[in-house]
Amino acid sequence: MNPAAADPDAMMRQWNEQIQAKLRQADEMKQVANAVSVTRRSSDGSVSVTVDQNGIVSALDLTDAALRKQPAQLSAEILGAMRTAQAQIAARMQEAMAPIIGDDSATMDALMGGYHERFPEPPPEDPAPPRPSGPVDDDDFGGHNFARDDKGW
């Protein structure tokens, strides 16, 4: 027979110790989680995006080269770097939590559950840069010569 089961005061002390240990573990997990962030750069290094443990952008750095890009290309590079950083949050969080949680896979699975759903791996980068979307040229007739058109004026 378990001696603690025979003594209600000892059983209460044991539960209290377990609860206090779990609260300390939760506090440590919260502190570690708050420190997790991921930074990713665009392929040419002109854009750098940092996201926090919730996937929220906490820093955005643009070089002078980034500011010379077309708006569509710049926004695509910012979003690409952000999505790549977000997709790495789960792995970074798991790394940070492993020393605290240990081999308690149920707790780790519960903690990591939503990260992969919220932040999936981004699609592979398109090697062709996006076409510039500047103002429409009113003098561009798409190669059609209206002067030689049989329809006349």
Automatic annotation (TrEMBL):
Q: Report the transmembrane regions from the record.
A: none
Recorded GO MF terms: DNA binding
- Gene3D superfamilies under this entry? Nucleoid-associated protein YbaB-like domain
- Asked if Cell membrane is a keyword of the record, the answer is no
**Pfam families per UniProt:** YbaB_DNA_bd (PF02575)
Specify where the region named Disordered lies, as residue ranges: 114-153
List all Pro residues biased stretches.
121-133
- Keywords per UniProt: DNA-binding
Q: Is DNA-binding there in the keyword field?
A: yes
Protein's name in the database: DNA-binding protein
Give the source species.
Lentzea pudingi
Which lineage? Bacteria, Bacillati, Actinomycetota, Actinomycetes, Pseudonocardiales
